[in-house]
Amino acid sequence: MSGAAAHVCGLIALVGRPNVGKSTLLNRLVGQKISITSKKAQTTRHRVMGIRTEDGAQFVFVDTPGFQTRHASTLNRAMNKRVRETLADTDVVMLLVEAGRLTREDRQVIDLLPGDRPVVLVVNKIDHAKDKAALMAYLQDVAATHAFAEIVPVSAKNGHNLDELLKVLRAHLPGNPPLFDEDDVTDQTERQLAAELIREKVFRLCGEEIPYAVAVQIDKFEEEGRLRRIFATILVDRDGHKAIVIGKGGEKLKAISTQAREDMERAFDGKVYLEVWVKVKGGWADDVRMLKSLGLD
Asked: Is the pTM of this model over 0.90?
């Protein structure tokens, strides 16, 4: 058998309801932050490819937005369309659920699962499940909802059992040469990643005060050797949201900018000069042209 024939590589969809831990798991599997995480639902809006290369195997993970049923904006319809497209395009599907919870939203995602390719059920937050008898009953209930190829309990936050998950996924990947270079970890451009990192900090630092309708627009991205100069605008729906993001005396916006810049410097392996502004653009989540300009159509 030739080396090329022995190599496995394929696209792995990572799906689940909002806020179940998909982006945290993706970042763990890839080994660095490429998809934004926060406790607020809808932090992932783009399909994000995370790439992990090992001897004889390349895993190409496709993160998706949490399938959204509560809101009916143009933005959410576009995100749900991407979930369906991802499921149609990949070789293996990972469904992520939270240990002990099987919600109506989980069941709606399960209803979308394909029947013609392997689906691995990944039970996250297993470290929170203290009652083993209740956990076993839960696993039986969720296993009955679909013909899963495998069931793997993990803790994305702590990295527990991820080696076993990778072993299971590898067994289902088709024989293919690598799609990406071995040093690649994502298909996102630095410009896209910069916008996502700023948006993550808005969600983390503003909490429930800010609704999910926040976007970040990169106005200018310049490179001078290892220095990157980035100018960005945070788009919000209302004047009240703008005041929350800026904070008293500008302290909140300063913290958002500082934390985002530090993450960018780690991701880009170089210095970053970052300027961030806040702008009110009412109804942007229903503006088709605006969504296209942000790459969210």
From this structure: no
pLDDT of res. 10 = 93
Return d(Cα 154, Cα 127) in angstroms, integer. 8
Express the helix, strand and coil content of the chain in percent, nearest 5 each: 40, 25, 35
Residue appearing with tokens 């970042």: 27
The reported pLDDT for the residue numbered 266 is 86
Number of domains in the chain: 2
Q: 172, 199, 227: which is the final residue of a domain?
A: 172
Task: Looking at the structure, tell me whether residues 13 and 150 fall in a common domain.
Answer: yes
Q: Are residues 156 and 202 in the same domain?
A: no
Residue 177 lies in a domain: no
Q: Are 93 and 64 in contact (CB under 8 A)?
A: no
Domain residues for the domain of 26 are 3-172
Residues lower than pLDDT 70 in the chain: 1-5, 34-48, 64-86, 208-209, 211-213, 282-297
* CB 64 within 8 Å of CB 82: yes
How high is the pLDDT of residue 222?
94
The answer to whether 106 and 17 have CB atoms below 8 angstroms apart is: yes
Cα–Cα nearest to 123, from 104, 140, 105, 147: 140
